[in-house]
Amino acid sequence: MATVSAGKSSLINALIGRELLHSANEATTACVASIEHRPDQSGFHGRCLSSTGRELVRHDDVSADQIRSWNGDAHVRRIDLSGPFRSSRGLANRLVLLDTPGPNNSMDADHEKRVFDAWRKIPVQFVLYVLDIGQLTTADNKALLLKLRRRIKARPGLRIAFVLNKVDLLDRERGEDLQAYVAQARAFLEEAGFAEPMVIPTMAAAALYATMARHDEPLTRGQRARLRQALQAMEDHEQGLVSAAIVPGAVRRRVLKDLSELEPIRPALSGGGQALATEDWQRLVCMSGIRTIEHLIKHQRNAYEKS
Predict the structure, then answer these.
(1) Beta strands 78-83; 96-99: pairing state
(2) Greatest Cα-to-Cα distance within the chain, rounded to the nearest angstrom
(3) Given 111, 203, 232, 301, which residue has the most CB atoms within 10 angstroms?
(4) From CA 51, how far away is CA 90, in angstroms rounded?
(5) How many CB atoms lie within 10 A of CB 305?
């Protein structure tokens, strides 16, 4: 969940490891989309449904363009997708991620109804709320968090974590310090009524582009620039995002263990081109915050099953 353009679709794309859901600096998600991890499939299957649940179209090999078309169709209210997540680190088979519209879309007031209709009907176990680091304390965020807190209180055992996205856009030379932004996010969330919030700083877009490069998929000039920016941001302290995350100690230790098993990214190659080795791209994903989220999902799922 998040407000418009905070990066929900980018985050899910990074977890999937494919540019499957459309993302842009505008409202792009109009439907609730479910994406199920099915490692046994070779590609993604998809279907779209009407407001009454009637299946409108089904494809056994659905493309990003097809999903974008469905999302823009006024008759479509839900999109169901299933396929293999590339970047998963032992995520459970049949794990389902749900992408929801930004409920504060001024162009379509129906978006909020769709979000909370899904909330009532779908047995969610864990919520990831995405915060854009450049739009952290907006009135829209405050309003949505208030509504969300009321609904979470009505569901005992439901947990929430906050993803502080787009941290690769911070400018250290202007004094924009990651630790300070994480502390600001924590204070903002505590003020909104979330005690001891889990906060995970991420570079979701960069993680996605690293996975795409690892699989020899072409990147646009803008995507290559974003990847270079992420690599440069991690040159000084490559474990910065992992260390700054406010998560259970067991989760951080697992991510650090994953990092210890990979060779450091070679400084000579940090220009961000596609000449990096496969292990370099894996390390970038691990450092980006995405691996922290993967381990947190597993940690929360295990806790939920034990309870």
Answers:
(1) unpaired
(2) 56
(3) 203
(4) 34
(5) 9
Q: Nearest-CA neighbor of 286 among 265, 259, 257?
A: 259
Q: Give the pair of three-digit tokens for residue 66.
A: 């097809």
| Two structure tokens written together for 81 | 């997708």
Per-residue pLDDT of the chain (307 residues; tens, 9 = 90+): 888 878 888 899 999 999 998 775 444 557 888 999 998 898 999 999 998 889 999 999 999 999 999 988 888 988 999 999 986 666 777 789 988 876 654 444 566 676 777 777 777 889 999 999 988 888 889 988 998 898 888 887 889 999 999 998 888 788 889 999 999 999 999 999 999 999 999 999 999 999 998 888 999 999 988 888 887 777 656 678 999 999 999 999 999 999 888 877 665 444 444 456 677 788 888 999 999 999 999 998 888 777 7
pTM recorded for the entire structure:
0.89
Count of Cβ atoms closer than 10 Å to residue 148 Cβ: 21
DSSP for 106-147, written as a single string: TT-THHHHHHHHHHHHS---EEEEEEETTSTT-HHHHHHHHH
Tokens of 128: 């990831």
Residue 273: both structure tokens together: 């081109």
Which run of H or of E encompasses 8? helix 8-16
Cα distance from N-terminal residue to C-terminal residue, the chain: 24
Whether 231 contacts 280, CB under 8 Å? no
Residue among 6, 66, 39 at smallest CA distance from 204: 6
Give the long-range contacts of residues 248-256, CB within 8 A, separation 24 or more. Answer: 248/198, 248/296, 248/299, 250/299, 251/292, 251/295, 251/296, 251/299, 252/292, 254/295, 255/286, 255/291, 255/292, 255/295
C-alpha neighbours within 13 Å on the C-beta side of residue 31? 26
